[in-house]
Model the fold of this input.
Amino acid sequence: MMKLHPMAKQRLAFGILSLSTIFVVLPVLAVVYLLLSRGLPAINWTFLTQPPTNMMREGGILPAIVGTIYLIIGTTLFALPLGVLAAIYLSEYAKPGPFTRLIRLSIVNLAGVPSVVYGLFGLGLFVILLRFGASLLSGSLTLAILTLPVIITASEEALSSVPQSFRDASLALGATKWQTTVHVVLPNAISGIITGLILGIGRAAGETAPILFTVAAFYLRDLPRSIFDQAMALPYHLYVLSTQVPNAPPRIQWGTALVLLTLVLGMNLVAAIIRTRFRRARKW
Amino acid sequence: MKAGSCNGSRKSLRRLVEPLIEKFVALNGALAILFVVMIMAFLLRDGLPVFRSVSVSKFLFGRDWYPLSDQFGALPLILGSVAVTLGAIVIAVPIGVAAAVYLAEIAPVRVREILKPTVEVLAGIPSVVIGFIGMVILAPWVKGAFDLPTGMTALTGSIMLAFMAMPTIISISEDAIVAVPRDYPSGALALGATSWQAIIGVTVPAAKSGIIAAVMLGIGRAIGETMTVLMVTGNAAVIPHSLLQPVRTMTATIAAEMGEVAQGTPHYYSLFAIGLVLFLMTFLINLVADLALQRTRVRR
Done:
């Protein structure tokens, strides 16, 4: 084997490493470009504000957009209080020990549970046992549990990064631990919590497998009227358009994919902006 | 001084309420444990009854998955998941770890500030969108390139899953590499090593536990992925002999069949049993990853 000079070897190695990185980045750009170039022509006022017509081969995707927004709201309502309280426990109250260790291990495992297993769980608990049926309520609860690990982890990080001196000052003034947590720690951690919330909910909004058996409807003429109604949702609608509707026009498929991606990445972007804004404004 | 007069009673009230609040908060803290236990319990409750119709070994090692004629051999599904995941990992690990090394050690700050958000974008793309792209772009290409009857193959699934596992592998490996104390490579550099020799001989080996954790979490992500494989792997429940044939994973089976089964039938139970197998596999994978991460924390 030819022996290379160490510097030549280094140049070769660095070249391979940067090539690998390009190999990750280029497809992402290609996907975004494809979605924009093929999806944008589909997007117009009718597409965004009308229900599908002609067996989903024409018309718009309004019910799917509305369904996904309802799911986002429902998921937030359940996941935010539970997630933040759990994070407050871990950051402010928990003492190191086997119980805390068990909680952390559970969070890690919850984060690793496949999304379709969440779907099975939601089906077994909410749809069948609690008799909520396939409904916005069941879907939101299922997505909320799926989102919890993200919200807990992000909120705990935000709470723990508030300097100890803030707490000490409040406690020294006679405030109780809970008052300190609510009036001093929480307000200073709010940007991190909101960032985590948006990231978690953004992920949930793009999920398909957990809503398959808990809420998603193939086609509904009317928008859902109560939390016990089924709903259409953007990710499931894209799945339906790509696999269940023969000869669905590609224009509508790409348009739906673009709307879904814009919604999810838009939420990520908002989270990123909040994060940098508040980091700059931080007083410590 | 109205405020002063009621101050005392309010204080004692607070002393009563405070421990209650603490209990309530602790209860919420334990939610994660509760949910893991409940998921497990539901999978057991609705999964175990399948073993009234089929033995455990017939279920795990049976080669025929024909639920309509009550044949519940899940081996093709398990091997389908394993094949697609292995393929994905073989692609994603070298590229992902190389990209992590590049981002952590070599890339100029400016370049990194552009590349890292791009990787985050990749992590944010919903799996159904990745599946759609795989269907309409990659599958026809695979069909043509290998001259196959269909482009919906295990390989198509592996390639798409590789991209979905990469953000996890990259970000966790990168964290591990960045966390290696700077003295380590400095020592090598002072002894006359080139930057590359210091990276490959010192920094990367020192980040080994973190990189192992990254790979494990990547495997967990790939094996549990549902929509993408459902849309691109062709869903044929046969034991795979090559990556160039259609396969059907455990996740895709649950997603495709659960909508059509009646509650309380052996078929219904069998899908929960597959969910149980899947849950146990990801549980083990995450446990190993967590132990590896724990090791990196203890050492520092």
Remarks:
- Chain A has one domain: 61-281.
- The longest strand of chain A covers residues 52-53.
- Residues 6-39 of chain A form the longest helix (34 residues).
